[in-house]
Amino acid sequence: MSDSIQALNYDLIWNDSLADDLRRFLTKRLKCAEAAADLTQETYLRLHQQNSAADTQHDNARALAFHIAMNLAVDYQRKASVRNRYLVAESIDAIAETPSGSQTQPERILIAQQRLAILQTALDELSPVCRTVFLLHGVEGLKYAEIAVRMGISVSMVGRHLAQAMLHCASRVGE
Predict the structure, then answer these.
(1) Which helix or strand (DSSP H or E) is residue 88 part of?
(2) Is the N or the C terminus of the chain less surrounded, counting Cβ atoms within 10 Å?
(3) What is the pLDDT of residues 129-162, one digit of tens each?
(4) Is the model more confident about 59 or about 131?
(5) What CA–CA distance (Å, rounded) separates 122 from 117?
């Protein structure tokens, strides 16, 4: 296929309307316009690479573009979840290591460090889904519906996981 014909076919596949639709879709899913814009651009690049490499025309390029965008969004959310998990662990470690003022007695510092260690252990004992729900709600401040969309579970399951995590952590810290 000649380059001019391939460029013409690709212009028929990718247009401003598709880019806007993808950006809106990703913004709704990710709750972040900047990340949505980045993933829209990445979708464009991957669609172009796939179209160039295959030398075939896809029957429904719009569906393919949304499929690529969905996969990129899932990857982005997984990476964000891992990143948040490590940031929370680092924050807990930093809080445990720093005294909270000159009025604090050494015993209080020790007790606070011990409680934080217990809380970290309790969080580690939770299932990954339960822990993620707890951190998304408690640390990031997301609402149940937002967590449900992000994790692909029902709102009632978000509530159950959150209740389970809170009970578990409270029982461990209270022991």
Answers:
(1) helix 61-97
(2) C
(3) 888 888 888 888 888 888 888 888 998 998 899 8
(4) 131
(5) 9
CB 133 within 8 A of CB 161: yes
- Domain edge (last residue) among 20, 44, 76: 76
What CATH number should be reported for the domain holding residue 161? 1.10.10.10
Full-model pTM: 0.47
Tokens of 68: 């690529």
Q: On the CB side of 104, how many CA atoms lie within 13 Å of its CA?
A: 12
- In this predicted structure, what is the pLDDT of residue 174? 74
18 alpha carbon, distance to own chain's centre:
24
Residue 83's φ and ψ, nearest 5 degrees, are -60, -45
Torsion of CA 94, 142, 163, 168, to 10 degrees: -10
Those residues with Cβ within 8 angstroms of residue 136's Cβ, 6 or more apart along the chain or in another chain: 84, 142, 146, 147, 150, 151
Give the Cα separation of 102 and 61 in Å (integer): 64
Q: What's the domain range around 139?
A: 99-174
Asked if residue 72 and residue 7 are part of one domain, the reply reads yes
Distance CA 113, CA 86 (A): 18
